[in-house]
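Appendix B. One record, verbatim.
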Amino acid sequence: MRPHAKSLVLSSSVIAMAVWSAPAFAQDAGSTGVATTAGQVTKPGDATGAAAQADTARAAVAPDAADRITPQATSDSTEPTASADIVVTGSLIQRPNNTSVSPIVTVGDAAIRESGQATLQDTLNQFPSFTTGGNAGTGGQGGGGRATINLHGLGTNRNLVLLDGRRLPVSDINGNVDVNILPEAIIEGVDVITGGASAVYGSDAVSGVVNFRTLRKLEGIRVDLLNTVSERGDGYRFNGSLAGGTTFAGDRGHIIAAFSYAKQNPVNGSSRDFFYDKTPSSFIGTGTFVPSATNAPSAAAEQAVFARYGNTGTRSPLLNLGFNNDGTLFVQTGAVNYKGPTNGSGYLLVGNNVRMPVGQQIDFYNGLDRKTAFLKGDFELTPSLTAYGQMMYVDLDVRTASGGSLTQFGTLTTIPVTNPFIPTDLRTVLASRPNPTAAFTWNGRYVGVPYKNFDEQYYVQQYLGGLRGKIADGWTFDGFAAYDESIHRQTINNAVVKTRVQALLNAADGGNSICAGGFNPFGDANARSLSQACAGYITKSARSRERVAQTQAQLQVNGRLFDLGAGPAQLAVVGDYRRNSYRFVPDADLSAQNLESIIASAAASGAIDVKEIAGQIDIPLLANRRFIHELGIGGAVRVSNYSTSGTVTSFEGDARWKPFAPLLLRGSYQRAVRAPNIGELFAPASGSQLVIGTPPASLGDPCDVRSTARTGANASQVAALCVATGVPAAAVSSYTFPTTATGQTINGNLALTPEKADTYNAGIVLTSPVHSGLFRDFSISIDYYRIQIKNVISSVPGLTVLSKCFNLDGSNPGYSAANSYCQLIQRDATGQIVTVSTPYLNLGGLKTDGVEFQAHLGVPVSFVAPSAKMYVDAAVGWTRSYKVQLLPNAPFLDYTGISNGGAGTNSVPPRATPRWKSLTTLGYRSDGFGFGGRWRYQSPLADVSAVLTPATAQVGVPAYSLFDVFANVKVSSRYELRAGVNNVTDRSLPYVASSQNGTDVALYDPLGRTFYLGVRLGF
């Protein structure tokens, strides 16, 4: 039998029998890499179809050759038959034709391999439908570097991620799925519904569904190895997998086992010139004295000290004073009498101010080690009953480093005047204060201890078992139960413990009686000479544990109802139950806010139960009529009862029309309802950094005298509000915020109500009407989407809190301290912002719409080789608008074409909302050889400040293009080599003004030109 004969078609007699637990996706049984977006038929021999362009690399190895590498590999969604057609659908019902109402992008195995990307999410993020969520470039403050998926920029928790049509283990409190856990060794392809699908799949699927397909069966052994390294010799990544399978009992049983190992080395900011001057923090290794506005030193005394240095100018006594290694003082603002390094050793003069750029210290690319074991099997008990089961275990370790710990969040440590290490000149200044014996505040960066770093250890396991079979003629069932859990153990290494630092500072001997040498924070050389004993004393490994578990059970029944002459109407009914539970036990010092640079995170737990029933119907109305090759309608409804939110209902209606075979017109509407998840309801107060920048170029602290709020027409009212909200009156005339970031606290809210969304899709698909000649392999699809979400659940953006409190957008015209946003800002005794609370609320609305365009053209070049073709694939996304309403009845803010560098992995708006995004591939393939090039493009972006503070809008991001080349060769029927170069032009990172690190390494390529080499063996 020729390999392509093992491709799939579902005839009307097989439809009901082939339905699995959530069989929304059926795809070619072979591993050819041919893709179908828009649910079109693709013939492996021709590679035609409207979505072949989605598999941008396509199969540089011919289908026959590829199939011999993985003999008898079939997808998990269907049963093989002898036809050469493929059915791709986006519903619980599998139609026996080539139509799908939902726009579907299918990325095949070959495209995944030829992308040269070490992870699945990096491959998918190249496509216009996706916005970058979490990946190896996220998690510097312990976010874990999770690999999450974000469709249309609507949030990683508003799309549903499946494996073979079933829910994957939940990886965090917000219901996200970490696709790092997937068994890449047997991933055959990825199907993506880019429109909403809540009525069919559940409330998570507001923006769409991503289904990863594994092989259904495999005879023999498959080995796949991939090595990737940057031109600079770092960023090394390795992926290795071993998969084996067999059939037994006369093909009644099938077993597949897969094992994989992935390694990714971390990359530090010090290895790239770009980060040399990024994140210029005022928290420096020399340490600084922070004057108190209510107990400030005498200006005359301070000037007398500096006069001895030869500096006779006048200066404010409220400015921070730093410590040179010789014991003399310097003024940090202006670098007056500063004697340390100015362009190296971690220091830099920025605007003539002494800074330590933190970008040099952090790991901008996370280190990762992952071990995965996967086992699945099925056995035909009787001709009408099959049992199946599946097990997955993942051991994942993600490592990040965030630089030297600093005194930043929460209560600052203080130094008593009895400390023996206080320099003589500082004693003179301290003695001039109204209360000369009072302890004083200092800040600094702990350069004497190793960089603070995080170990994020994940242990994920899932166990699933079920039965499927035939009930009666035309009626089938599929039922399964599953349990999974994700254990997350976070260790903060070299975390500085505030109480232990305070103990050393308070000791009469400077702490020498506690640990050798004690702690001398005055001057960079002293700070770096901290003894190993004292470094061990003031640091610890802070350990926290998080457990997320999911129990699910589902029963689906499919059957045929009646026939109006165009084919049988079909019905699918699903009932399911899920329970998600969560428990978080933080380290005691983390909970007590006793660690530097970490905000308190309290213990928390919670659970949600949901019972659902759903039904879907498909009714073919007419077929084979004049101008009606096919006409059909369908609909779905889902009723969900949540233990926390009550009962919600979602529904969907759709229609499809093919005037003639090559042309499909389709459209759908659905009402989606998303209930709040565990994180939004039960999340403990937890902290992260909020990037506010330095005024006037950035928003900064509006109370800062450099800000436009303090220099504008309403400066006096702003100053009065600053005093009313915590800035000391004695300091307000000279108040400055010393760094570019502050704390941000997020916590759950049990008063949340469900979101409601309306989703519209309309599209046209045209395939070539000819079966020979130059244009026989041509297809195009154009789909319009419009998604509107009301009652959006989100945390209040921290910059929005500051803007609204200080009336930068007209929200507080009376400059009242009682304003609800002002109540979310917490300041310390010196007036500095300690944290901005950003709780989860039902904020307002979110709406986006746009067009996705996909095209494919393959041209035979038989004069080179009988099977040779040149091809071009293009996937283009145009976002017409992306708007966010921050409060009910408030105006929508237009975030179209905006760069939001401070966004988290689940933020709305996301990291970027480019108006245009595209992926284009030009290539050649034949039976034994293929090569090609890719162009990745993103249109220019304005900075998010253009929306929030248009008067001080910062520079945006220019258009961004990357070019890749790839090639593969079939050495023998069982041995394939692939290689390529990504970012051929070594495109540098763009500057992102709204990002604390000056760019976004999750969205843009931080490594530069990289090379990859892979090999695949089949036995």
